[in-house]
Amino acid sequence: MTTTTSRAPALPPSTRTLLALAAGVVVLAGVHTAREVLAPLLLAAVIVIICHPVRFPLERRGWPRWAATTAVVVVAYLILAVLVAMLVFAGFRFADLVREYLPALVRSVEDVVDQLSAVGIDTDVAEAATSWLEPARVLSLAGNVSGMALGIATAFFFVLAYAIFMAADAARYSTATTVFGTERAATIDRAARFSGGVRRYFVVNASFGAVVAIVDGVALWLLSVPAPTVWAILAFVTNFIPNIGFVLGLVPPAIMAFVVGGWQLALAVVAVYCVVNVVLQVLVQPKFVADAVNLSLTLSFVSVVFWTFVIGPLGAILAIPLTLLVRALVLEPDPGSGWLRWLSGDDVSRARGTDPAPGAAEIDGPTAAERVEAPSPRDAETERDPQVQPEGSAADDAPAPETA
Q1: C-alpha torsion 24→28→31→33, nearest 10
Q2: How many CB atoms lie within 10 A of CB 80?
Q3: Which segments of 229-359 are extended strands (E)?
Q4: Which parts of the chain span the membrane according to its record (predicted)?
Q5: Which of 157, 204, 214, 318 is the most buried (most CB within 10 A)?
Q6: Contact indicator for 108, 67 with CB cutoff of 8 Å
């Protein structure tokens, strides 16, 4: 006598999607509430991931684990010290420039408004810009920039503490392959791909950012634009912000050039930035970034806006690593998420261990018709030997002969 067990009816896809979105909203609301703590923690994690490979050549040379961990912490501290020094210097120097050139900026905008009015052009936008350039408002902005620089420097003290503990734990986690190599191979592979993608992303961005910053700084110095070092630092930092970083790095030096040299100098600055940054950041760098992280351009752009809203200004710099983390935690463990991973820009064919395919049908495997037409191994065996009966045939249903 056979018994049948009844299964609970599966939820429809629309309900599952709504439940997943609701859970995501709850999680993101918690992250947004705790952003003051989580943002430095995430930055420390990224710094440790970048510096972690320093330990491997040292351990191969016979260094004890604690000494290799100390070397990782030292490298992380050096990176953080350089970042803090650049941000604090650029923040306070920018505040000084605003206070020094504010009257000249207001006069320049008023002259533009008068010239537009003289030729009968509507000046609503220009008048709105003039209202935004009121001395009290702009000086308040300068004070906010200085305070933001100090706030970032204070947050880095928490990052320093986090980095010590994370570097120590990373030394233990690096042995996961030896301890759980067979049992947790898929999870370890996902973590390794995520860490490697984060490292490659920041190495590519730092390399291109350094080249862009040097070229822009030298060009601004030759054009006699004030504070070229500040704008070079700004170009380096904004290079880590995908897609919109170019605009964020261009506007302040262009405005400064307009104040000191008129529209001709501002146009020259825009031309230099367009030639240098478009060639490097738009034509060359995306190819290397795409190979490093496998994210679509649309998702890269949306992730900047999204993570900036969720965790604050650091979200713009950590947008790509956080998006990679969500994909590694949510999509990659699910065998049925290949379509979503492909939409995000991931190389699904490489993840499956097959050759890259030009069409969606090849990515998803054989078509339904091909699966129907393809004979099973038992069918092929039946064709070779007629005595072999397929499963479910009459021979299987016949009762076994009784034995004495």
Answers
A1: -130
A2: 18
A3: none
A4: 39-58, 70-92, 141-165, 202-223, 229-251, 263-284, 304-326
A5: 318
A6: no
40: Cβ contacts below 8 Å, ≥ 6 apart: 155, 156, 158, 159, 162, 314
> Got the DSSP string for 86-147?
HHHHHHHHHHHHHHHHHHHHHHHHHHHHHHHHHTT---HHHHHHHHHT-HHHHHHHHHHHHH
For the entire predicted model, the pTM comes to 0.69
Q: Please answer whether residues 83 and 100 qualify as being in contact, where contact means their C-beta atoms are separated by less than 8 angstroms.
A: no
Note the pLDDT of residue 379: 46
Backbone angles phi, psi at 199, to 5 degrees: -65, -45
Q: What is residue 291's predicted lDDT score, i.e. its pLDDT?
A: 67
What one-character DSSP code corresponds to residue 399? P
Q: Record the tokens describing residue 285, joined without a space.
A: 């760098």
Question: pLDDT digits over 189-236, tens only?
Answer: 888 888 888 888 888 888 888 888 898 889 999 988 888 888 898 888
Which amino acid makes up residue 162?
Y
Which stretches of the chain score pLDDT less than 50? 1, 351, 353-404
Tens digits of residue pLDDT in 357-386: 443 333 334 443 343 344 444 444 444 444
**DSSP collapsed to 3 states, 309-338:** HHHCCHHHHCHHHHHHHHHHHHHCCCHHHH
Q: Which residue matches tokens 């970042």?
A: 83
User: What letter would DSSP give residue 54?
Assistant: G
**Cα–Cα distance between 37 and 283 in angstroms, integer?**
37
Cα(339)–Cα(39) distance, rounded to whole angstroms? 31
Residue 120 falls in which region: left (phi positive, over 0), alpha (psi -120 to 50) or beta: left
Contacting residues for 217 by C-beta, under 8 A, at least 6 apart: 228, 229, 231, 232, 235
pLDDT digits (tens, 9 = 90+) for 77-105: 888 888 878 877 877 787 777 777 777 77
